[in-house]
Each structure stands twice: as structure tokens, then as C-alpha cells.
Q: What sequence folds into this?
């Protein structure tokens, strides 16, 4: 049998610190708020936290634009608070995984400020290029839309795959890689257990020549998963592999199972990768151009990755994605949609990642105007859309549907000021009066209670963690698979549709089900079942 690593056995919870819990009433989440909620996370049953960036940041991209990798954004607290979080979490057997942002820094980082002088030793920390008679050096488009080239006062350009306040680092300069070895050593010495590597397969730009082909808003250019990109990741991982039992989970862009397996092939590069394919089944060629969610498309993508990649990082939400409950479920079936997704996430093969608020079925925010958005990506896309003459009404609807701010509204701890007694940095969802931790703790049946139970079912049943997976024949929109470990076999059957589905079902031991009744030959809308014992 597989002797699993700790990160294969963990149930990981992603905290977006700005929106988790505010303890000094400035309307902004902080590290002391996370410390305060460790008992809650312990009670829920998670044993690792992926912490989105808490470093000193210019807050253009709320932490993903870093000014100092060795210190904490004073809005979130101090380095001592961070050390205390690590200590308290460790006491509760909760590991801390930090966000490692290698592709770029903030344009307010000292390195970048120095690099503006062409003779500076930091000039080659970034990617500068002369334009062609004042025009941008190549046709690349960025992830936030528009050109990746920002003109400087000197008339040349620097590269930024994301916002212009996030200049890309130049990994052709070995000093940059050495800087990240120091950063990793610093945090590993403080006792963190791993890194979530931001956009980890695009940070090495082999050539700056024109792209092969370009999708709107996201060029599939030469910088995807270059050979040197692999080598650098391997070098960083191997630098610490012998001295630390740590893990690296890579956030990957524009990837397929083969590229994922390339990143996972040497055990000294990445341990896990987040893929996007299943999160792109309800869009056309990028997130802003949506198409209707079809359960069978989501099922197809999940089955593809489950059969072609041995150990996935499974997720349906994070700080970049709209909330999943109505995206992959149905507003008329809130409880069943949320608990169906819970069963799916926690019974697939691989490591499950739960995003803050997903465990209580938090929903998108009902934005009504552009000035409510704080996300740089949403603002940039609006600007670009207006330049392209996209009608305001249509443009607003695109952004309202897909804005990352949908996932960043404050955590709903109770009916009123659970997150903060001050006005939150981003408006809290008024439906917190119905959807919140406190009331779901008290209710006999709630999404939160279901998550806690399902996390425990996973822990108590080796097939769900260590078991192999094989898919069975099911009606359209129903996902069915067996998880087998030694002589134990569990059957998981999940109706991802809002229709009743006919399917012969054994009534043998039901381990968990998100409906009160199990119908012999029928699956109710969003009914999810785990059937144990003899099948
Ligand atoms: O996201 C990288 C990335 O691929 C996202 O830009 C994604 O494509 C988009 O948000 C959804 O379409 C990482 C971080 O998760 C994100 O929060 C940062 O803004 C980005 O990198 C830059 O650091
Ligand atoms: Ca605060």
C-alpha cells in the first residue's frame, strides 16, 4: 500500500487573510484573527492552512505584489504575530503553507526601484527591452488584459504578465533564483510546512519573440513551462529537500495533464499542482466570456484529470474564482448543491482544498456598480472593455459574474459584525444573516455540519484517501466512481444535475448522503451518496 505523505493525507483550508477575521477593528482581516479561529479550523477537522500572501505589499493585487518577502504587511500584523500563528497552529497539528510569488514583485520593491537605473546591479533582476520606434517589443497580452509591456520614463519598456505594478522578475539572472533560496530558507526556518507557488510554470521567459498564437486576454506564448522553468523549480526544491519535510504545490497556468505530469515527474520539483481545466468548463476562451454550466462537461474534465494524473490538488473555489455553490449548483437547492460539492471534493482521489466560506455555502455578491469592486483585475478588464466599446451594461454583467471579488467578501461568522466591528474593506454579503458559521453551528442540518461530517468520513475511510479510483457507468450528469483500498471498496454516486435521475442503487450501508431519504432507483437533484461495505 502507498505510504502517504502528510500533504497527501491533509485536508487543506485556504485563508485569504484580508477577509478572514479582523481583531483590531480596522475593517481588514489580520493574523491575530486567524489565531483566534484556529480552534474553529481544528473543530472542522482541517489540518493545514494555505495562507494567501501576508508580506509587505503595495496592495495593488492585495499581497500578490510584494515589496518585502521577509516582513509582514502591517495591516495584517507583525512578524511576531506570524511566528505566533505558526506556533499555535503547530500546537493544534495544523500546518502552515505560505504563498510564494516568484514571477514578479511589486513595482515598489527596492529591487525594482533600483533597477530603473540602467547601471544598477538590479537592472537585470527585471526584463527591460527597447521598443521598436516607441512601439511595444512584442505582441504578448497579459492575464489582466492588454499588453505586457509598460513604458518607462526613459522610453524603454519592462515586462509584466499581470498588472503594470507587478514587474516580472528575470530568472535568466541566477541572482534572482538565489534570492528565492534565501526567502524559502527564511520561512522554512520559521517552521512553515510548504509553499503554494504562484503561477509557477510561466516565470522563465525563454525568448521574447512573438507568441505562437494568442487567445484573447491570455496569450499562449513562449514562456509556458520552458525547460529552464523546470530546472529552476527542481533546484529550489532540492536545495531544501534533505533538510525539511516540506511540500510545494504549484499554481499552473494553461496546463494539460501531460504538462502537469512533467511538473510532477521528478519527485524533486513539485509535489502537487492546481489545474484549471475543470474550472473553465463554463467559459468560452477565458473567464469573461461565459457559457452555461453543463454538469457533463465538469464531469468530463474531472474524470480526465483523475485518470491521467495520479494525485491531484482538488478544489472548486479559491480567491480567484467566483463561489461554486450556484456556479456548479442551483440557487433553488442551496443546501444540496453545497453538500453535493462537499462530497465530490472530499471523495475524489488527491488532496482536497477548501476555500474560506465554502464550508458554509457562501455565495457571490450582488454587485450593482463598478465602484464596489476592489480587484485590480476587474478594474483593468472594465477599462479595456470600455476602450473596445463594449456596452457598459454588458461589460458590467461580465465583471459581476466573474470578478474575483465574489470570493473575497468577508467571511460570514455570524449575522452581524462577526468579521469586524468596523466597515469592512470590501462589503460583506447581506445574506450573512442567513448564511453564517454561528447559525450553522447550532442547526441540526447545515452545510457546515455536513462538511465536518464529510471530512471525518474521509478520515475514517482509507479508500477515500489511499484508495484507487475507477469510474462506473452512470446516467448523464451523474458521476460515479469506486474507491478501492485493499479489501475495502466504497461507491460514490453524485448527481450533479437539478433533475431526478434513474439509477439502480444498492441500499447497503450508506456512509453519508446529503438527503434525508435514499430512493432505491432514483437520485434526487444534487444527491450525493457514499455507499460502503459490500456492494
Ligand atoms: O493567479 C494566476 C492566474 O492564473 C490568475 O490570474 C487567473 O488566471 C485569474 O485570476 C483567473 O482567471 C495568481 C494568483 O492566484 C492571483 O490572485 C494573482 O492575481 C496572480 O497570480 C498574480 O500574482
Ligand atoms: Ca484588522
A:
Amino acid at each position: 500500500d502507498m505510504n502517504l505523505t502528510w500533504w497527501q493525507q491533509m485536508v487543506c483550508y485556504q485563508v485569504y487573510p484580508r477577509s478572514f477575521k479582523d481583531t483590531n477593528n480596522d475593517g481588514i482581516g489580520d493574523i491575530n484573527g486567524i489565531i483566534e479561529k484556529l480552534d474553529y479550523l481544528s473543530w472542522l477537522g482541517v489540518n493545514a492552512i494555505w495562507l494567501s500572501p501576508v508580506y509587505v505589499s503595495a496592495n495593488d493585487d492585495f499581497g500578490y505584489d510584494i515589496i518585502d518577502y521577509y516582513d509582514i504587511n502591517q495591516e495584517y500584523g507583525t512578524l511576531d504575530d506570524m511566528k505566533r500563528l505558526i506556533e499555535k497552529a503547530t500546537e493544534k497539528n495544523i500546518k502552515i503553507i505560505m504563498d510564494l510569488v516568484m514571477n514578479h514583485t511589486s513595482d515598489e520593491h527596492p529591487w525594482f526601484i533600483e533597477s530603473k537605473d540602467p547601471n544598477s546591479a538590479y537592472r537585470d533582476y527585471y526584463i527591460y527591452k527597447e521598443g521598436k520606434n516607441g512601439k511595444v517589443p512584442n505582441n504578448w497580452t497579459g492575464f489582466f488584459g492588454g499588453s505586457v509591456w509598460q513604458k518607462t520614463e526613459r522610453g524603454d519598456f519592462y515586462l509584466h504578465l499581470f498588472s503594470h505594478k507587478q514587474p516580472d522578475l528575470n530568472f535568466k539572472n541566477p541572482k534572482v533564483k538565489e534570492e528565492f533560496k534565501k526567502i524559502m530558507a527564511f520561512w522554512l526556518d520559521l517552521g512553515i510546512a510548504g509553499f503554494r507557488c504562484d503561477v509557477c510554470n510561466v516565470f522563465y521567459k525563454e525568448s521574447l519573440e512573438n507568441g505562437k498564437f494568442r487567445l484573447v486576454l491570455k496569450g499562449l506564448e513562449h514562456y509556458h513551462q520552458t525547460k529552464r522553468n523546470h530546472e529552476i523549480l527542481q533546484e529550489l526544491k532540492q536545495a531544501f529537500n534533505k533538510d525539511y519535510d516540506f511540500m510545494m504545490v504549484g499554481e499552473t497556468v494553461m496546463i494539460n495533464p501531460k504538462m502537469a505530469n512533467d511538473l510532477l515527474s521528478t519527485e524533486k520539483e513539485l509535489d502537487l499542482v492546481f489545474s484549471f481545466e475543470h474550472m473553465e468548463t463554463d467559459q468560452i476562451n477565458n473567464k469573461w466570456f461565459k457559457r452555461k454550466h453543463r454538469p457533463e462537461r465538469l464531469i468530463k474534465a474531472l474524470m480526465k484529470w483523475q485518470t491521467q494524473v495520479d494525485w491531484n490538488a482538488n478544489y472548486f473555489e479559491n480567491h480567484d474564482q467566483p463561489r461554486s455553490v450556484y456556479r456548479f449548483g442551483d440557487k433553488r437547492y442551496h443546501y444540496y448543491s453545497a453538500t453535493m460539492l462537499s462530497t465530490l471534493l472530499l471523495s475524489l482521489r488527491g488532496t482536497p482544498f477548501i476555500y474560506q466560506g465554502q464550508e458554509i455555502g457562501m455565495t457571490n455578491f450582488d454587485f450593482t456598480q463598478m465602484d464596489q469592486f476592489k480587484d485590480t483585475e476587474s478594474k483593468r478588464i472594465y477599462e479595456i472593455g470600455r476602450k473596445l466599446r463594449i456596452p457598459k451594461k454588458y461589460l458590467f454583467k461580465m465583471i459581476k459574474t466573474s470578478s474575483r471579488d465574489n470570493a473575497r467578501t468577508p467571511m460570514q461568522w455570524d449575522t452581524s459584525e462577526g468579521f469586524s466591528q468596523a466597515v469592512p474593506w470590501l462589503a460583506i454579503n447581506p445574506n450573512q444573516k442567513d448564511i453564517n458559521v454561528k447559525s450553522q453551528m447550532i442547526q441540526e442540518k447545515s452545510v457546515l455540519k455536513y462538511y465536518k461530517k464529510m471530512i471525518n468520513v474521509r478520515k475514517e475511510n482509507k479508500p477515500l484517501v489511499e484508495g484507487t479510483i475507477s469510474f462506473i457507468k452512470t446516467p448523464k450528469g451523474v458521476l460515479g466512481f469506486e474507491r478501492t483500498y485493499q479489501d475495502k471498496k466504497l461507491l460514490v454516486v453524485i448527481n450533479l444535475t437539478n433533475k431526478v435521475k434513474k439509477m439502480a442503487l444498492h441500499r447497503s450501508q450508506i456512509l453519508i448522503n446529503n438527503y434525508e431519504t435514499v430512493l432505491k432507483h432514483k437520485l434526487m437533484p444534487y444527491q450525493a451518496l457514499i455507499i460502503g461495505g459490500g456492494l
Observations:
- The pocket of 1-O-alpha-D-glucopyranosyl-D-fructose (ligand 1) is lined by residues 61, 64, 101, 143, 162, 198-199, 251, 253, 287, 319-320, 377, 404 (CB under 6 Å).
- The first helix runs from residue 6 to 9.
- The radius of gyration is 23 Å.
- The domain at 6-105+174-364+408-454 is CATH 3.20.20.80 (TIM Barrel).
